[in-house]
């Protein structure tokens, strides 16, 4: 094992503990990073060794790196007090409990990046939260958690608590697509408020609405339906890359390119959509031979989603 990575979030309020952690062998990348952390000091982010008491470091040795810039002695006391002690106790207990093999304790090093909010004040919470988060991060690292299957299962079901929303993807069909072509924003918002929340409803922002209010009308709609999947129907005919970028900048989940556009425009639009992480659609309305057109796009080396 060269090194493994663990992460854990424990607690609540200003004292919430978030630990990012690396554990690995001294003669590998983890050992190099450990030495660099101690040798290269940074103002406000001074690394410190985890100690169980003065003059007694842990085995394996652990270096603590504050994530948030320490600006005064009150903040420093929390790092060099309850946080330092908590990390040390967690490392020692991890060895005692067999999470870290005792026979490897002299071979490994631990790098723990910890979060102490500037408004954190309760030393008891800081200690217990960081103890729990550090030990959980070590356990996850040693168990190589999560596995790829867990990530693939959770990626479209989970949302980040500090973001308050998730990036909706089309992963569980069928879907009901609602076309919003009314060029009246107030009426559109009223309609959206009456539509029930569902992972199986997606919204097409119609061309008339886009022409009147611009692509960033989506930001207004997200005030009502923040997690919805929005398709921006630009029916792009030229400057495909620019309009795809505009759709992404407006937080669209997908952009529509006209099948009547030149192949170069369609290709640039699809490639820009791929770069920005959104889906691309080609509208074949009024295209004389859609299958032939699709084959031409394919020959150019791309395909719409």
Automatic annotation (TrEMBL):
Q: Which reaction does it catalyse?
A: 5,6,7,8-tetrahydromethanopterin + formaldehyde = 5,10-methylenetetrahydromethanopterin + H2O
* Species lineage: Archaea, Methanobacteriati, Methanobacteriota, Archaeoglobi, Archaeoglobales
Q: Which UniProt keywords apply?
A: Lyase, Multifunctional enzyme
Source organism's superkingdom? Archaea
Gene Ontology terms: biological process = 'de novo' pyrimidine nucleobase biosynthetic process; carbohydrate biosynthetic process; L-ascorbic acid catabolic process
Respond yes or no to whether keyword Ribonucleoprotein is given for this record. no
| Membership in a protein family | Belongs to the formaldehyde-activating enzyme family.
User: Which purpose does this protein serve, as stated in its record?
Assistant: Catalyzes the condensation of formaldehyde with tetrahydromethanopterin (H(4)MPT) to 5,10-methylenetetrahydromethanopterin.
What protein name does the entry list?
5,6,7,8-tetrahydromethanopterin hydro-lyase
In its UniProt entry, the species of origin is given as Archaeoglobus fulgidus
Domain Orotidine 5'-phosphate decarboxylase: start-end pairs:
175-304
What's the Enzyme Commission number for this chain? 4.2.1.147
Alphabetical list of SUPFAM superfamilies matching this protein: Ribosomal protein S5 domain 2-like, Ribulose-phoshate binding barrel
SMART domains named among the record's database cross-references: OMPdecase
Using the record for this protein, list the coiled-coil segments as residue ranges, or answer none.
none
Molecular function GO terms recorded: 3-dehydro-L-gulonate-6-phosphate decarboxylase activity; aldehyde-lyase activity; carbon-nitrogen lyase activity; orotidine-5'-phosphate decarboxylase activity
PANTHER family according to UniProt: 3-KETO-L-GULONATE-6-PHOSPHATE DECARBOXYLASE SGBH-RELATED
